[in-house]
Amino acid sequence: MYLLTKSRGLRLAAHESLAAIFALSVAETFYRFHSFTLECLAFLATWYGVSWALNKARKFGHQSDVPQHVRLLSDHKQAGPDQARPSEIGGVRRG
Question: Could you give phi then psi for residue 60, rounded to 5 degrees?
Fold first, then answer.
């Protein structure tokens, strides 16, 4: 857990907080297995499922009708031959 939070930082905690709070409320309300281990595993499974659903919903909300490779090409301008950088023409500036 320490390595996960160290490598991903607090952004992971902020990203997962909504799913964790929802899963905790479901576990506290509905799970009564009389076993800590079973309740903990059910909570973790619920958290995973809610997190998966939220990530799919976020990705679905950010999709557009244009395929990604078309968007990438339209976002970048192509430099013409008169705008070529020196490294593109052998390191010699001409003109």
Answer: -65, -35
